[in-house]
Specification:
Elements (H helix, E strand, L loop, with lengths): L8 H4 L2 H23 L3 H5 L15 H26 L7 H46 L4 H27 L1 H32 L8 H6 L2 H12 L9 H20 L17 H33 L9
Amino acid sequence: MSADDGVGLGYWTRWPVLASGAIVLALPAAATAVLLRRRSAEDARLRPSDLWTSCWRCVSPPWLLAYRALVVVVMSSLLVKEVLADGIFSFFFYTQWTFTLVIIYFVIATLISAHGCWIYSKQEVIGKEEANGLLKHDIEDNGPGTLTLKTNNEKARLQSENDQEVNEKRAGTLGYVMQITYQTCGGAVMLTDIVFWCLLVPTSADHFSVNLIAACMHSLNAVFLLLDTALNNLPFPLFRMIYFVFWTFIYVIFQWVLHACGFTWWPYPFMELATPWAPMWYIAVALAHIPCYGSYWLIAKAKKTFSPKFFPDAYTSSY
């Protein structure tokens, strides 16, 4: 193959390609170094119940479960419509990758919320049984029947606490995956929507038109995630940007592998390597990760900082 067809050896040995490759590889290398050295205090303080409870006292776990399940249905419907319209070609774009990742987060969150609601319902039942036992204790005289009732209630309470401890330990790995997915989505949805509305739409209006599905996919992903951020009880540490960097790195490598296999079309103009401006574009996109993730971090930080001040009786948080 010749260098002009975009997939030959001559293409991959051009200086813009080599420089862009060095930039792309430097990002995950730096992120890995940070990951190996950084120990997060937030992870040590995070309780398993924080995965399925809200930071607002008025929002019970079943309501949070209902919201997350609704988001899964709505976003999955949009993705199915997109795939039916464009086929597997849809997944050549970073938008569909990120949109799918947000769906994965809400699926995991829904499963953990459902598990948490089951624990929540058992706690309510035990609480009612203990309240009824105390009421009967006030009415009836002390005797063998009362002692048996108190003993049964105590056994039920201890059994419930043991079951809860075991169940929370089982949800630990999935809960950790949920946290990483959530924090990766935070930066990814900001990057996706900002690039689409602020860069691609104004500069490429002659090449494509924004239909309803495209508009929804580049807005609802952030809207739904921001609403979940407003409701959930999860931390959003700044250093977790490293997972966002890994996510984009995987997508770029995916596109480069396709291109090396003969696929000569780039889904985004700034990914084109056959131009002297390629290293500058890749540096710009790499640097864009900082404000994209940082803006979402500021939103989560603002919720944590100002909610206790303005809503001291309604807001509660464990981190």
